[in-house]
Amino acid sequence: MMKQIRRKHAGNRIVELFQAYLLNHAHGLFSSLGRLTRTPFTSAMTVLVLAIAVSLASSFYIVVANVQQLTGNLESSNQMSLFLHEGITDAVGQKLLEQLRQNPSVAEVKYISKKQALEEFKANSGFSDALNALERNPLPSVIQVLPKNALENSDDIEKLMADFKQLPQVEFVQVDMQWVARLQTIMLIASRGVALVSLLLGFAVTFITGNTIRLELQNRQDEVFISKLVGATHAFIQRPFLYTGFWLGFISGFLGWLIVTVMLLILESPVEKLSTLYNSSFELLFLSFSEFLLLLTISASLAVVGSWAVLHYQLRQLKPQ
């Protein structure tokens, strides 16, 4: 009986300690937010600077994401054109089309007969009268081939191109491999550039928050001295300052997302109009909900890390006289 009472008492004690732990952290969380509101101008300036840094990193990221989407839409323009010999009939061309369609490296194929090619050239070139004066159609039949993963595996395209050149019906194959290589290199440079700039801006968020917390710690030196005299641990003293850093990072992350979203909304209409003029269905990408949460997490985490680093050093230097 006594054992059961002791176990129950121990269980209640653990629950009480856990509740007290949660209450202490909740008090530190909301009291630190209250301190920020008591110095609105200083807090607003710090948050604004941090938000600009976060929005810049996010803007670079979303620009690259939209460019990558655009290159994905341009993949259909990276076609191989297989020009057939002049004597190849439409029946032979259609048979070759079915043969190419079975190739696992080919995504799409399209056959353009000599007559279709001439009609398209008349419609697009503006020289229909001159072309009508020709005694015979000078254009060859063409099979347009869209390779799979055309913008990712240039080596595969070269191999596929060499295979097509061996076909007896094909006179020559045309594909702009240099364009593909340039586009791949540009996207690689852009991605790495965004990573480097984001890293620098992340350091900026860390250092700015750390400096803000350092100034806050200096303003509250007397409070820290008293806490040390009564035996408070560094973890206990750090807690409200860490929560201050958390709020600075969290609010800055939210404002950074808001800035980027407003910028995209302003650009959305003219971008869609430009896309329509080019007969494209391109639409601006916005930060998804998961990316929004990741932005808040990274921003708050960087601010907390900066706060902790400063507190870890400064509290060792502050000693009651």
Summarize it.
By secondary structure, this protein is α+β, with helices and mostly antiparallel strands. The chain has ten helices and four strands; from the N terminus they run ααβαβααβαβαααα. It is elongated.
Could you characterize the architecture of this molecule?
The longest helix is centred in the last third of the chain and has 44 residues, at 234-277. The model has no long low-confidence stretch (mean pLDDT 81). The chain has helices at residues 2-38, 40-74, 90-101, 114-125, 128-132, 154-165, 177-219, 221-229, 234-277, 289-317, and strands at residues 80-84, 106-112, 142-147, 170-174. Helix content is 74%, strand content 7%. Strands 2-3-1-4 form a 4-stranded antiparallel β-sheet. It is built from 10 helices and 4 strands; from the N terminus they run ααβαβααβαβαααα. With 321 residues, the chain is α+β, with helices and mostly antiparallel strands.
Keywords:
about 325 residues, alpha+beta, four-stranded antiparallel beta sheet, 10 helices, elongated
Question: How are the strands of the largest sheet arranged?
Answer: 2-3-1-4
Which of globular, elongated, flat, extended, rod-shaped describes the shape? Answer: elongated
* Count of alpha/pi helices: 10
Sheet bearing the most strands, described?
4 strands, antiparallel
Q: What percent strand?
A: 5-15%
Bin the helical content: over 70%
Structural class: alpha+beta
Computed Rg: 33 Å
Q: What is the distance, rounded to the nearest whole angstrom, between the alpha carbons of the first and last residues?
A: 54 Å
Outline the low-pLDDT stretches.
none
The topology string of helices and strands comes to HHEHEHHEHEHHHH
Mean pLDDT: 81
What is the β-strand count?
4
